[in-house]
User: Fold this.
Amino acid sequence: MSENQNRERNGLIAGLIVAIILGALTGYIAELVALFLVVYVAFQFAQLKKLYVWAQDVNVDELPFEDGLLGQLAEHIQQCKKQRIQQKESVKYQLERFKKLISVFPDGVVILSLSNNIQWFNDQAGKLLVLEKRDTGKPVNQLVRSPAFTRFLKGASEESVTIDGPSVETNFSTEKIEIRVLPYGEDERLLLVRDVTKVERANQMRKDFVSNASHELRTPLTVMKGYVEMLLLSTEGEEKFSPPLHKVEQQVIKMETMIDELLALSRLEDGNVENTASSVNLRSLCEQIKLEFDGAAEKNEQVLVFNIEPSISLKANKVSLLTVVRNLVGNAIHYSARGSVINIGWTVNDDSEGVLFVKDAGQGIAARHLARLTERFYRISEKNTLHKTGTGLGLAIVKHELERHEARLVIDSKIGEGSTFQCCFPAARVER
Ligand code: ADP
Assistant:
């Protein structure tokens, strides 16, 4: 026990002894002891209250008691107070540093609450989203008015959204901004805002170039194709001319296909929203495909087997769906061996998605290629294939067309065993 505690205890015992002696002398022992205890407790209570009031005030430095147990306690509290002040200063300093660091970021940063209210933003975010300090606490989608952004905030299924910069109206040169959302802390989200005006302009230039060049190349190619066909007819059977002319014809066809596909991709990229909610019966769509491809399949001694119930329809765009199935069935024919069977069917997967699939027993695709097949111009070595006029654009178009229907392409393949291309449509698009 410390010296202070001993002194405190001895004082209490001495007081009690004095009260007992006085009680014995006057004949009121119990009353005097009780009186002493009441006075003692009241005194201690007043001291504790004084200590409490002092402990609450961070600005008062002077100790309320110099010695005794309460003095010791006050000293301890004083130390804790000092530590807390130091910690607060350090957190404040770190926060300032963090804010300074974020403020020199070239990108905008906004901290949002889970209900999308703005908690804090850096200067760059203020510029890009035209926010002012008084906007702190307000819902961000009321300040950044864009339906695409509001949809993105609600779902955030895509990685990012690109919208017109609200600052266009304020003559700031940002035309396009890209916004991403990241979870941050337990109940906050981080909005990252980037100026993508230059990237978007370059993208637009690329799109315009591809589209214009494709249009311009179409006419000379049609002329060339006409002359090649004419020459082929007039030199029929001539060993010297026929093979090279056939090669030229093959390349002209390839270029023509490439131009058509590039133009189709340009149209898809422009995102012109055509109706994607008509009721399209899959059975009759496949009958059309069968008519188109039966000839090509027969030539390769292949069989097309369609297995789709007549009752199944999709809310979709018919032309888009035809493009998708045409590409997949065309590929299955091109990349399968003679005499093989190609199955086209319908099923529902574990995620309740409606799946239209094209399954072949062809050469198959090595796993390392699978993730890249939907990239433009991506082709697996031409050496092993009979399909010499392929462009590598077909599956890119398929992917884009499916995206317009919120659908996805799943490719399953094994070398030597064949491939299955599945178009998975959300349940909401399936009609029975
Ligand atoms: P293209 O067929 O015009 O070359 P695609 O984009 O349709 O272009 O296909 C890209 C590549 O994917 C093809 O070059 C081919 O190597 C491979 N591929 C596509 N479908 C199949 C298939 N059913 N079986 C094997 N390989 C395929």
About this structure: DSSP finds twelve helices and 13 strands in the chain. The first helix runs from residue 3 to 26. The pocket of adenosine-5'-diphosphate is lined by residues 327, 331-332, 335, 360, 362-363, 365, 373, 378-380, 390-395, 419 (CB under 6 Å). The radius of gyration is 40 Å.
